[in-house]
TrEMBL record:
GO terms for molecular function: DNA binding; DNA-binding transcription factor activity. Residues 29-122 form the HTH arsR-type domain. Keywords: DNA-binding, Transcription, Transcription regulation. It comes from [Bacillus] enclensis. It comes from the Bacteria. Gene3D superfamilies: Winged helix-like DNA-binding domain superfamily/Winged helix DNA-binding domain. InterPro entries: ArsR-like_HTH (IPR011991), HTH_ArsR_DNA-bd_dom (IPR001845), Metal_resp_trans_reg (IPR051011), WH-like_DNA-bd_sf (IPR036388), WH_DNA-bd_sf (IPR036390). Residues 1-23 are annotated as: Disordered. This is DNA-binding transcriptional regulator, ArsR family. Signal peptide: none annotated.
Length: 122
């Protein structure tokens, strides 16, 4: 029984240390972080932007390709891409006169994929 008691004490100590670590790291969110987090959730709260990000998670596309595949106006796509680019969620490369967009933030793309997985298996 002594081993079980020692193990329980060790787990209690680990749990206490984890709580203390959490207290230290969660004291306050700086304004810049708070702004970026809320803007990221704002970006993901709009269905057209989610559709665009989901498409770009698969491979890069031009504005015209995005508009065609998602049945959207080119101006709508351009507007949404500008919003996403300002948050550094998408990036682009130029080839001649054409801009090709792709996902630019693995963390947010992983979160989006996980959320979609959650929605499909809820």
């Amino acid at each position: 029984m002594g081993k079980d008691k020692d193990k329980k004490h060790e787990l209690d100590t680990q749990h206490h240390d984890e709580i203390e670590d959490t207290k230290e790291t969660c004291v306050e969110i700086d304004e810049e972080t708070l702004f970026i987090v809320t803007q990221t959730f704002k970006a993901l709260s709009e269905p057209t932007r989610v559709r665009i990000l989901h498409l770009l998670a698969q491979k890069e596309h031009s504005v015209n390709e995005i508009a065609e595949k998602l049945s959207l106006l080119q101006t709508t796509v351009s507007h949404q891409l500008r919003f996403l680019k300002n948050l550094r969620l998408v990036k682009y490369r130029r080839e001649g006169t054409t801009l090709y967009y792709s996902a630019d933030d693995d963390h947010v793309m992983n979160m989006l994929q996980q959320t979609m997985h959650h929605a499909r298996h809820h």
